[in-house]
Amino acid sequence: MDIGTTSVKVCVYDPETKELVAKQNKDTAANIPSDQGIEGNKQDVPKIVSAVHYCVSRLPRDVLRHVKKIGVCGQMHGVVLWKDRAWEK
Q1: Where is the Carbohydrate kinase FGGY N-terminal domain (predicted)?
Q2: Whose CA is closest to 71, among 25, 13, 16?
Q3: Which pLDDT tens digit goes with each residue over 26-72?
Q4: In terms of C-beta density within 10 A (0-12 exposed, 13-18 middle, 19 or more buried), how is residue 10 classed?
Q5: Is pLDDT at 25 greater than 80 in this prediction?
Q6: pLDDT band at residue 84, thresholds of 50, 70 and 90?
């Protein structure tokens, strides 16, 4: 699972057959204009979380039943910070 700020990608890999079994991706459309101009970059975290949910929910259930391990990587050059319940306004 690759959780980036511009897109989210998930795949299911079968280590026995060495084949990609299923995959999904979705652009996050999470950019928010920053008051710091080009020096800053803000992200709409709920949109990123929504993209993760979208991708995982689109994987076939019969494939998901066989998942034993999950690997996650994040965006490249930075960190995403958010407040607990930030999207519950």
Answers
A1: 1-83
A2: 13
A3: 999 888 877 777 777 778 888 999 999 999 999 999 999 999 999 99
A4: buried
A5: yes
A6: low
Look at the block and give the residue holding tokens 């958010």: 82
Question: How many angstroms from the chain centroid is the CA of residue 36?
Answer: 25
HEC secondary structure over 27-78 = ECCCEECCCCHHHCCEECHHHHHHHHHHHHHCCCHHHHCCCCCCCCECCCCC
Dihedral sign from CA coordinates of 80, 33, 25, 89: positive
> Please, which pLDDT band fits residue 77 given cuts at 50, 70 and 90?
low
Cβ neighbors of 5 (< 8 A, separation 6 or more) are 28, 30, 31, 41, 43, 48, 75, 78, 80
Separation in Å, CA 26 to CA 33, 38, 64: 21, 25, 18
